[in-house]
Amino acid sequence: MACFSCPTRTVVVVLISLLFMISTSLIDVSASNFYQDFDITWGDGRAKVLNDGELLTLSIDKASGSGFQSKNEYLFGKIDMQLKLVPGNSAGTVTAYYLSSQGSTHDEIDFEFLGNLSGDPYIVHTNVFTQGKGSREQQFYLWFDPTADFHTYSVLWNPQTIIFYVDGTPIRVFKNSESQGVPYPKNQPMRVYASLWNADDWATRGGLVKTDWTKAPFTAAFRNFTATACVWSAGKSSCSSTNSNSTKNSWLWQELDSASQARLKWVQNNYMVYNYCTDTKRFPQGLPPECTLINS
Ligand SMILES: *[C@@H]1O[C@H](CO)[C@@H](O)[C@H](O)[C@H]1NC(C)=O
Ligand SMILES: *[C@@H]1O[C@H](CO)[C@@H](O)[C@H](O)[C@H]1NC(C)=O
Ligand SMILES: *[C@@H]1O[C@H](CO)[C@@H](O)[C@H](O)[C@H]1NC(C)=O
């Protein structure tokens, strides 16, 4: 397709990236320790840090779920966490693992794992909020049983793109479409959050299957959190110092190479359950602007 504004746009993106790189460098790579990196925020004892801080478990029963949040706020980062989801009959439960800023115009990058009856597949529900507005859901099945072992779920968030990964395989890309008038998360620092909560009004088969509380408590486990990220502290990013090392910072301008794009296509062709970008019934006025070409 002919696109006369594209060369200009590419130059602008490259210039912005260069400026950002020059001002950017000291990246915080933190090793995994839940005592050091996270606070348990709710659940009255249902969230537990175990094995000297290596493992964190969240539980839910009829009275309450539970959750935790990172001590640090980040403005851009590559965030990895390993999760082992609620086994057996997990219908109605949602394990959420997401990045979010504060306030009514917040930005948010979500992974939510919708439980199911024993033997029926989980759905990985993803969403991106910018300036308080979401409604950008994409859902996927997984190509393995996420309750049998730990798997790595990652978010790459840099000025150009947000990429969701499962075990290093990209499942979703949300590109910076500011040139199409779509706000992009780039000014509000975010924390990492996780929670286990009940949503049996919608989560499993659209709410038809309810939680079986006789099987409670339900438990999900987290380990090996890794943040290769710019830490935000006292109004400043750890990436604004001038101590540069380009190899370490490569995640800041990373995009999908052609091999990763092929894997993304494989996931989208074989495991995608729902894509807001193709839901013309939901958007009779026209699909959201970011859905044209680049994110669909
Ligand atoms: C649960 O299993 C049913 C039947 O296989 C499937 O239609 C549904 O997408 C699965 N996941 C959820 C979260 O409902
Ligand atoms: C922990 O996470 C890092 C970064 O994702 C990964 O390289 C490493 O293999 C993980 N360790 C284990 C034990 O899985
Ligand atoms: C930059 O980072 C890489 C990988 O972390 C390391 O091997 C290299 O020695 C570093 N170079 C400088 C100049 O610090």
TrEMBL record:
Keywords from the UniProt entry? Apoplast, Cell wall, Cell wall biogenesis/degradation, Disulfide bond, Fruit ripening, Glycoprotein, Glycosidase, Glycosyltransferase, Hydrolase, Secreted, Signal, Transferase
Any one Pfam family here would be Glyco_hydro_16
Question: Which enzyme class, named as a word?
Answer: transferase
Task: Indicate which residues are glycosylated according to the record.
Answer: N116
Post-translational modification here is noted as:
Contains at least one intrachain disulfide bond essential for its enzymatic activity.
- Catalytic center residues: E108 (nucleophile), E112 (proton donor)
CC per GO annotation: apoplast
Query: EC annotation?
Result: 2.4.1.207
What is the name of this protein?
Answer: Xyloglucan endotransglucosylase/hydrolase
Family, similarity comment: Belongs to the glycosyl hydrolase 16 family.
Q: Which organism encodes this protein?
A: Rhododendron simsii (Sims's rhododendron)
Q: Please classify the protein's predominant subcellular localization into one broad category.
A: secreted
Task: Quote the function comment for this protein.
Answer: Catalyzes xyloglucan endohydrolysis (XEH) and/or endotransglycosylation (XET). Cleaves and religates xyloglucan polymers, an essential constituent of the primary cell wall, and thereby participates in cell wall construction of growing tissues.
Q: Name one GO molecular function term.
A: hydrolase activity, hydrolyzing O-glycosyl compounds
Q: Any keyword Secreted?
A: yes
Q: Which GO terms describe its biological process?
A: cell wall biogenesis; cell wall organization; fruit ripening; xyloglucan metabolic process
| Annotated compartments | Secreted, Cell wall; Secreted, Extracellular space, Apoplast
The UniProt entry, under InterPro entries, shows:
Beta-glucanase-like, Beta-glucanase/XTH, ConA-like_dom_sf, GH16_AS, XET_C, XTH
Q: Which residues form the GH16 domain?
A: 28-222
Task: Report whether rRNA processing shows up as a keyword of the record.
Answer: no
Q: Which residues form the signal peptide?
A: 1-31
